[in-house]
Amino acid sequence: MKKNSVKNTRINSEVQRELSVIIREGIKDPRIHFMTSVTDVQVAPDLKTCKAYISVMGTDKEQQDTLAGLRSATGYIRRELAHRVNLRNTPEITFILDDSIAYGAAMSKKIADLHVEAYDSDETRTESGEYDGEEE
């Protein structure tokens, strides 16, 4: 995988920030879920294409509806991006569903559940510090 240049990294972060603002404030499509975030943006070095990774905290249907709403508003989003970010070319945006935030939340819940189980098993000790059942 090719390492991004400093310029490309700066462009990626600027496009990500502006896409987030446009999606949050500019689009009035009811299909787009209010818990939508832009997790990553990869603009090609020639500024012709852009992959925008979108995370939606909702059901599968809400995720698919949000993706459909964003794809239908691609022209508006691209025009707004051209007004807000001064680039030689305004890239063609491809929206890709990213489930990394939901995956991270699920993993955090599993870890928290393990901590609760470990805490509950520690409470089975008596006041003298020994277990009620078998000895260690």
Overall shape: globular
> How many domains comprise the coordinates?
2
The CATH class designation of the largest domain is Alpha Beta
**Fourth-tier CATH superfamily name of the largest domain:** K homology (KH) domain
- Low-confidence sequence ranges: none
**CATH topology name of the largest domain:** GMP Synthetase, Chain A, domain 3
Distance between the termini: 51 Å
Contiguous helical run count = 4
How does the helix and strand content classify structurally? Answer: alpha+beta
Short note summarizing the structure:
The protein has 136 residues and is α+β, with helices and mostly antiparallel strands. The chain has helices spanning 6-26, 60-72, 74-84, 100-122, and strands at 36-43, 49-56, 92-97.
Task: Walk me through this protein's architecture.
- With 136 residues, the chain is of the alpha+beta class.
- It folds into two domains: 6-98, 2-Layer Sandwich (GMP Synthetase, Chain A, domain 3); 100-136.
- It is built from four helices and three strands.
- The protein has helices at 6-26, 60-72, 74-84, 100-122, and strands spanning 36-43, 49-56, 92-97.
- Strands 1-2-3 form a three-stranded mixed β-sheet, with helices on both faces.
- Strand 1 (36-43) and strand 2 (49-56) form a beta hairpin.
- The longest helix is centred in the last third of the chain and has 23 residues, at 100-122.
- It is globular and about 65 Å long.
- The protein starts with 5 loop residues before the first helix and ends in a 14-residue tail after the last helix.
- The mean pLDDT is 85.
